[in-house]
Amino acid sequence: MYLRIIQFVKGAFRKIPPAPSVVREFGQSYRSNSSSYHAFVEMDKITALRYERLPEDSPYVKPFRMYYTQNGEEKSWDLLKVHDSVAIIIYNSTTQNLLLVKQFRPAVYHGVISSAEGTNPTTIDLEKYPPQLGITVELCAGIVDKSKPLVEIAREEVLEEVGYNVPVDRIETVLTYRSGVGATGAQQTLYYCEVTNADKVNSGGGVDGEIIDVVELNLNDARNLLTQGSVVTSPPSCLLGILWFLTNKAPKP
Ligand SMILES: O=c1ccn([C@@H]2O[C@H](COP(=O)(O)OP(=O)(O)O[C@H]3O[C@H](CO)[C@@H](O)[C@H](O)[C@H]3O)[C@@H](O)[C@H]2O)c(=O)[nH]1
């Protein structure tokens, strides 16, 4: 399994990239922006990894235990309050590719290791568990941590992470749903945005120290990604977004 996940990001870590670089996984290929290659080679340079108990003032995660009585039976549920979020399906009609983002996700890395070790790890062997295991391919997305219209937050994320400048009237709402129903119940609003090469204003890659790589996925590979039995680190929102796009928007082959 680990080998398969690492194959997912293999090719991304060559010292000198061909232009542009292509990452293969399970028969699919992702075309990475050569312009943001610099970020791409740095995202797995994880060192000095350690765990600490979560401080109470975390701006991102607040743990609670909820008590309630259901049909006369007293119950409790341990839960986490996290930010709501937006995610955007982006299709470049010039290149006929979906635009996704690749990044190191500490929670995914932790999830992979704790699944393997069976318990909550306290230390991590970076040789045994290469940081590439925590790299995901996802929709462009962002947390709702400011009081702005959700579609405006989506517009900003498209610009910051992927580098396309589009007005909000070109971003359409797709669905609103709850993710993490067992632990967080956070709301995510899914948008769709069609861009062209003319909308591109920078190479994306995120802000404030984020290390994000833009990934272009052609539609054949998008279909293959959803093949029965696929094992990926991508979240359900990404798989849903691709499926929605293929069902509702993709040009007929
Ligand atoms: O513990 C944390 C958590 C977040 N951040 C920062 O907050 C940013 C949040 O990034 P943003 O791009 O706004 O959101 P995402 O990390 O992309 O996550 C959103 O998009 C994901 C993919 O759909 C969803 O799974 C998440 O629930 C949703 O919040 C990060 O980059 C960090 O800079 C930290 O520094 N520490």
Automatic annotation (TrEMBL):
One of its GO terms (cellular component) is cytoplasm. PANTHER family: UDP/ADP-SUGAR PYROPHOSPHATASE (PTHR11839), URIDINE DIPHOSPHATE GLUCOSE PYROPHOSPHATASE NUDT14 (PTHR11839:SF15). Hydrolyzes UDP-glucose to glucose 1-phosphate and UMP and ADP-ribose to ribose 5-phosphate and AMP. The physiological substrate is probably UDP-glucose. Poor activity on other substrates such as ADP-glucose, CDP-glucose, GDP-glucose and GDP-mannose. GO terms for molecular function: metal ion binding; UDP-sugar diphosphatase activity. This is Uridine diphosphate glucose pyrophosphatase NUDT14. Its cofactor is Mg(2+). The keyword Hydrolase applies. Its main location: cytoplasm. GO terms for biological process: nucleoside phosphate metabolic process; ribose phosphate metabolic process. It catalyses: UDP-sugar + H2O = UMP + alpha-D-aldose 1-phosphate. Keywords: Cytoplasm, Hydrolase, Magnesium. Its EC number is 3.6.1.45. Homodimer. Coiled coil: none annotated. It is found in: Cytoplasm. Residues 81-239 form the Nudix hydrolase domain. It comes from Phlebotomus papatasi. InterPro entries: NDP_pyrophosphatase, NUDIX_hydrolase-like_dom_sf, NUDIX_hydrolase_dom.
